[in-house]
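User: These chains co-purify. Model them together.
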Amino acid sequence: MGVNSNRVEHFACPETNLIIPAELVAMPPLQIHKVCLPPEQSTFQKLKHRVSEIFFPDDPLYRFKNQTWFMKLILALQFLFPVFQWGSEYNVSLLRSDVISGLTIASLAIPQGISYAKLANLPPIVGLYSSFVPPLIYAILGSSRHLGVGPVSIASLVMGSMLSEVVSPGEEPILYLQLAFTATFFAGLFQTSLGLLRLGFIIDFLSKATLVGFMAGAAVIVSLQQLKGLLGIVHFTSKMQIIPVISSVLNQKDESIRKPKLFWVSAAAPLTSVILSTLLVFLLKSKAHGIPVIGHLPKGVNPPSLNMLYFSGPHLAVAIKTGIVTGILSLTEGIAVGRTFAALKNYQVDGNKEMMAIGIMNIAGSCSSCYVTTGSFSRSAVNYNAGAQTAVSNIIMASAVVVTLMFLMPLFYYTPNVILAAIIITAVIGLIDYQAAYKLWKVDKLDFMACLCAFLGVLFVSVPLGLAIAVGVSVFKILLHVTRPNTMILGNIMGTQVYQNLIRYREASRVPSFLILAVESPIYFANSTYLQERILRWIREEEEWIKANNGSPLKCVILDMTAVTAIDTSGIDTICEIRKMLEQKSLKLVLANPVGSVTEKLDKSEILETFRLNGLYLSVGEAVAYISSLWKA
Amino acid sequence: MGVNSNRVEHFACPETNLIIPAELVAMPPLQIHKVCLPPEQSTFQKLKHRVSEIFFPDDPLYRFKNQTWFMKLILALQFLFPVFQWGSEYNVSLLRSDVISGLTIASLAIPQGISYAKLANLPPIVGLYSSFVPPLIYAILGSSRHLGVGPVSIASLVMGSMLSEVVSPGEEPILYLQLAFTATFFAGLFQTSLGLLRLGFIIDFLSKATLVGFMAGAAVIVSLQQLKGLLGIVHFTSKMQIIPVISSVLNQKDESIRKPKLFWVSAAAPLTSVILSTLLVFLLKSKAHGIPVIGHLPKGVNPPSLNMLYFSGPHLAVAIKTGIVTGILSLTEGIAVGRTFAALKNYQVDGNKEMMAIGIMNIAGSCSSCYVTTGSFSRSAVNYNAGAQTAVSNIIMASAVVVTLMFLMPLFYYTPNVILAAIIITAVIGLIDYQAAYKLWKVDKLDFMACLCAFLGVLFVSVPLGLAIAVGVSVFKILLHVTRPNTMILGNIMGTQVYQNLIRYREASRVPSFLILAVESPIYFANSTYLQERILRWIREEEEWIKANNGSPLKCVILDMTAVTAIDTSGIDTICEIRKMLEQKSLKLVLANPVGSVTEKLDKSEILETFRLNGLYLSVGEAVAYISSLWKA
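Assistant: Joint model of the two components:
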């Protein structure tokens, strides 16, 4: 790689070139600094750096540096099984906190488990199974101390809607169950791979704005659908779209609506309402035959379900698709919840490790009759507030669920379905976050658009498509910013070396004979044509302004490249092109403060040569000072 | 919108706050400037500004400002029909240049027209028709003076490959012709709409890197396919993928290869070789029966083909898809060629107007037996070098083609197909631009990747999919830059207010007790998690460095926001999060030089309040000076 400029050298820049023209009285001694290239690196070194920034931004092995082999072993164990980090310091006082919080979340987990399983069109018992095995595995592998693990509403409803599009849970319950376990397996596999391959940033593309809209849309759909349980409508569409759902409600004849027994239930005490309603139904059982109840539930812990996984056949594609969508959604929820509570207690949650923990717990779950689980927001909040200290609270909860599974199942016989519908509606209504949506509108209209698209997409199109549309809108937003970047005229703030936007800072004033333009984006193929046109328009307008105001004629255009954080070959061509065009107008084009990678690419493409003499400056201030001094000389 | 800070005000910033602590001897008088918000604008004003930047960056109506009604009318006519701009000044000397260049490109256009039509599996005569009507229309509407209009190789081969996947040109020639005209109609419609809706920036997404790879891949495919003509193989696959093409060549038995008559032909003189080879075949016609020749061509100008457009039926989707793909490709070529020659002669070509001109000429073409046309690079180069001055050279060329169509068609009877194959191969081999690919590799590895993906995608997958993959790679490149932005530590360059990358500038030195970080990208949902982790890692590493070097303890982290050109709600949350985490470590977080839109969003989200007292500075220099003075006081 040649260095083609006497103003640009690799790293070995001599300190400064001092030039002090006598005319510059108001200025400090004129110091012109050379623009340096970044230290030279081979392609391999650059690739290595890039890969490590992409996949290992957190430098996960830094703890292992300068350690003995024995310490490295212990650290590796602690790294793989966070239980070893806190296990050795565990004591009775921590245990007491964990028992209290564990029992508290168990009281939430049991009714939620049954309800969410129904949301996924699965037998209620599967919801309880899913509150037993996965929390145990998470307690060993997970790095969050407050995550309450179990089935969650979003993943349940998405699984229910996606699977019931191809298989009816009522007509082919076994096949449906097989597909659910298979989807869970693929969700786990997908999550584990994301963690292993350190591709966790993929879930970052589900922005908060998208999730706010998505969850609100899903909540509306589910609430409408659960009217089935509340109003007792039997022939209800299971399609997850608002038009069939609403028309199905509207088309019900009066006689087919059996009188609902309960419209409202407190969200705060799902267990209380389950117990009360079960008692009520039990006491009235001779009089109220029409009330649908859960009925018989099998006793005993999770049966193995490895033999129910479904790796060939016509529905495999749906199972994989469902697995990936629910996998992404449950990861997003689990990791966001984990990070939230970790930030409150000031510890770190490692995203990629969490993905592996959640993934492995779902793979194990799929072999033991569980469906997709993750860290649930409601349960984690209860866990945190009840004083949980470590993942042991998950073990306590799992134990409570086991006791329920072994001995208390007959008690649920008379639990009315309507109470489960009420629990679901209460849970999902809480997902509608008006305030967040309002804040999005106030702060960022395009974020609000993404949110709205997710909401409407889920409501009127379908769950996966709505999600895809919302991600598309978010990506479009990034591209729009790149395609139409901001450009502006800078002026000098009197008595300083600071150059700022003329329109924003009244103290800033134009520098006569100069036009100082800042470009606020990388220069890429996607915006190079636009920037060329826009810069020529700025120059045209500046010339018109000078003519109208009898200013001194324009002689030099300075491009402030500070915010041009990258350039590609099209961008380089554009710079050359602009330079040629300005030359034909007898205008000088100089670049101020190009960042390292841009300077390097300009050098490699050999256009630095054309900027060799006085075309490249460390700052706008130095460019203005030096060029003015040249004119005066 | 409230203003929540005593350090941030709308536009009405008082000049400066002068504070001069006696301790700061090395510094100039300490001037701390307030960070201003941009002038307040309503949502509607912002939307208007944004829309005008997206759709009207060139301010197309600026010529109409401050003009009389009569002048406005004339300017509007000139705007719509550029022929009025140069028409009034046209003279004999210009005409002479245009006649010479027009006749020169006609000599190229006739053999190219016949060959490219064969490339698109169309009757050769359609290629000549397409060199007559479209150039005439372009001469009236187009704004380039050097564009040589007619069929081009890329659009021809893409149309040939896409249409012959569904309809065999040999078995159903009429249906195939109908589809070709229909595709041309939709190409024109698409191009016109892009121009009318000012969505021209869509074609910018086909970066130069992508096109280099795409054209090379297409050239290889076409060259292999044309071996059919050159080697005289009869049963040759018409699928456009390299594996079937190569295996088809390799599987030919010896006896089925008729001895080729010509392997090589000069690229410089297609017409000469057509004439010579035609003469040769004519003279040898009694002896060489095996040579395939063009055969009978109908005399006369373009017949109307409006009745052949195909607006319903099973193949409509293919016609529309083909139209859009060939439309985009031909636009990209036409506009790039137009801009290239305009830049050489220092005049402007208006992209959106060009799109309308090319689109209208294709719609008109589809009704007069023409297929997709655009500005061809080879023809425009010849036109330019032959001295063309205005679009009249296109009219001269069209006239020459008409004379050929009316009187000279029988002369082509004995033109051997092999010579057309040779012309095609010569033309497409020229599309392989080794040097451009090498330059991409040298300057920008990711651009080279996009180029390679386009090449391999076209070669081994299919033309539209290869194109889609390459665009995907280009977009991925933008997203990657946003997802993993560069962050770096800045240091002060001694004796200046300039802060630069510590690794790049040896003169730059750390400021004790400060960590100055620059983020080189907008802060978005896609990178907020990464940036949070990365910034915390910088701080951790800095603290380790301080411990190892016995430096003064870290007290303040300055985020230089100059290159953070945008922020969204996730980004704002991240800034809050980092601030809270640093507070728990008793570290101060301040922001330096946030750009206008970022300041505004911080203000709207009400987190500026938390930065109210001494948390926001106009420049890194002022932040360092002011905070140091506070510590000393």
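Chain B has a mean pLDDT of 80.
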